[in-house]
Amino acid sequence: MLRLNTETRKVQIKKAVLDIISNEGLSKLSTKNLAAKVGVSEGTIYRHFNSKKEILLSLVEDVYTNLVVNQKTIIKSDITPSIKLFTFLCKQIKYLINNKGVTILLLSEATHANDSDLKEKLLEILKAHKEMLKLIVEDGINKGMWDENLDCDAFVTLYMGIPAILNIELILNKGTFNHENFCNKMFTLLERILKM
Amino acid sequence: MLRLNTETRKVQIKKAVLDIISNEGLSKLSTKNLAAKVGVSEGTIYRHFNSKKEILLSLVEDVYTNLVVNQKTIIKSDITPSIKLFTFLCKQIKYLINNKGVTILLLSEATHANDSDLKEKLLEILKAHKEMLKLIVEDGINKGMWDENLDCDAFVTLYMGIPAILNIELILNKGTFNHENFCNKMFTLLERILKM
DNA sequence: TACATTTGTAAGCGTTTACTCACTTACTAA
DNA sequence: TTAGTAAGTGAGTAAACGCTTACAAATGTA
Predict the structure, then answer these.
(1) For domain A56-195, which CATH number applies: 1.20.1740.10, 3.30.930.10, 2.170.150.70, 1.10.357.10?
(2) Which of A16, A60, B12, B84 has the fewest Cβ atoms within 10 angstroms?
(3) Cα distance from A93 to chain B (closest Cα, Å)?
(4) Is some CB atom of chain B closer than 8 A to the CB atom of A21?
(5) What residues of chain B, 109 to 138, have a C-beta less than 8 Å from chain A?
(6) What Å value separates CA A108 and C1' C3?
(7) Closest Cα to residue A99, out of A151, A126, A62, A125?
């Protein structure tokens, strides 16, 4: 009977959640399936979390920390808007590829989660991304590098489509998909919109 | 006891499916909930379809007919590539707004449906859209209207992000979202990419 | 060593799931 | 009028769902 402390188990459980979501889909995320994936009994899951919903909430909390807080350091850094945008895109795509389940949570559950707490948190993450991106674009315009006539909000919306379509692209180009290549191509197109 | 023929009921049931998906989410699409929405008993659902899966398959078949086949008429029509692209975008967005559940099916289920038949059909619709769009772009390039150095595939990928992010935008801009405005804004950005 | 605390388990709880079936009701055509 | 058929019903199924609990085993501390 292997015994691990609750912090270690919590990490294991949340990792297993993302694993199940990305490989089997949200509908297969049952507590039974989850326990099996971690390698413990169902009771053990409830030793460390009070409910299934609490697991997802904790997971989304982690996403906020790892993705949003991390991205904020890019905004603050002292680099050109162009490199900022490129770095922002690359970091985001890299994170979402390494945590595929997150994209599904963000885009499926945010639109109609049963639980409004979870939905609110997920929308917060999306809004935070849009705001950060807007800061980068406005910075570039103010510095006279990008077109001041650009519709900033529209650009941000179009940008957000990139993470939204990522999972589909991963399936359609299975095998040949290249992370860096993808980022470069998307950035090239974005630059064409921004340029004066 | 209201009696309707099977064709009428099938239409009702599939409409109810989209209704539930867009208003309550995929997880609430139970046969019990579905029967209640249609206003019949659960047994009646199984009088017209053999399984829940069969309902979804038939629904996706309809989407292919109504969306893909319809879009093909745009490709064949005798208008400039620019207007073709705009019409293509508008028709697609309009359809997805009127059938919100379709977007969720297309993008959530296509990535990890349990049923591979359904997944395959959904991916087919996505591929068909990409191919049609590619034809429009290549036409524009060949006619010397758009930049020949453009990465066609990358453009198509970026475009597909628009329907992918649509549902999120509908929630984030609830109340103020305007269909025509959205299409115009997105098209303006796309044109900036395409221009020489 | 003694004992409290933390972690893990197996069995089982009530509810919901997709689906079935024996039966009833409405329509159609001979 | 009657017989055949298509459509609808309500009670039921086994399996899966999220979750609980009584108890056992490992660990920390005295």
Answers:
(1) 1.10.357.10
(2) B12
(3) 14
(4) yes
(5) 110-114, 123, 126-127, 130
(6) 50
(7) A62
Q: What is the pTM of this model?
A: 0.95
How many angstroms separate the CA of A19 from the C1' of D12?
37
Compute the nearest-CA separation of A2 from chain B (Å): 33
| pLDDT of B114 above 80 | no
- Distance between CA atoms of residues B72 and B128, nearest Å: 10
Nearest to A38 by CA among A24, A59, A53, A18: A18
Q: Give residue A98's identity as a one-letter amino acid code.
A: N
Q: C-alpha distances in angstroms, A63 versus A28, A59, A148, B47, B91?
A: 21, 6, 33, 45, 35
Residue A66: which residues within 8 A CB-CB, separation 6 or more? A95
The shortest C-alpha distance from A104 to chain B (Å) reads 7
- Between the CA of A2 and the C1' of C3, what is the distance in angstroms? 22
Q: Is the CB of A33 under 7 A from strand D?
A: yes
**CA–CA–CA angle B100, A114, B109 (5° rounding):** 45
Chain A hits for B112, Cβ within 8 Å: 21-26, 104
Per-residue pLDDT reduced to its tens digit, A96-134? 999 999 999 998 888 877 778 899 999 999 999 999 999
Counts of helices then strands in chain A (DSSP H, E): 11, 0
